[in-house]
Amino acid sequence: LRHHVKHRRRPVSARIPIKDRVSIDARPAVVDARTRFGDWEMDTIIGKDGKGAIVTLVERTTKKLLMAKSPRGKNAKAVAKLVVQLLKPFEHHVLSITTDNGTEFAEHKYIARMLHTKVFFAHPYSSWEKGLIENTNKLIRQYIPNCTDFSTITDEYILHVQTELNLRPRKLLNFSSPKQKFLLYLHNGVALGS
Is residue 191 pLDDT above 70, yes or no? Predict the structure, then answer.
């Protein structure tokens, strides 16, 4: 017997587009070379059952990691304030920030204004465009597995993980540590925009 085939449409994502986002296509080409000090990548690690969030930031040249637990999970305003808090001590060395399209970064204009920088968004489903932070998050997951309840993670432990990874020698850094390279750039007085 003839019958009609029902065509089922894929469910449309309820994700809200981020207002005034600036595409990675507009990012200066120098960022791709990873030779300029002060270009950062940003992401979040989410806890068990989607609860809780740890904000992670990595400087592209030195691999220096900054991380902290967001007091209100993926809430965009809380995440933005935390990003500013983490990067404020290095404000003159924040030339750009690249992130994904997670709604927790909806307050990107606040971040850009407070740090006098520019925030760029990778293309959807193109995590390789911010591969350093993705790889760094995998290293963090060695200490904080996917199934971890973030309510059990203390700020002291997060700082411990950050310190461990910043002291780990890296082949890409000629077996120097991210901390060593980062301090070297800071002490050499790298000029803004160089």
Answer: no
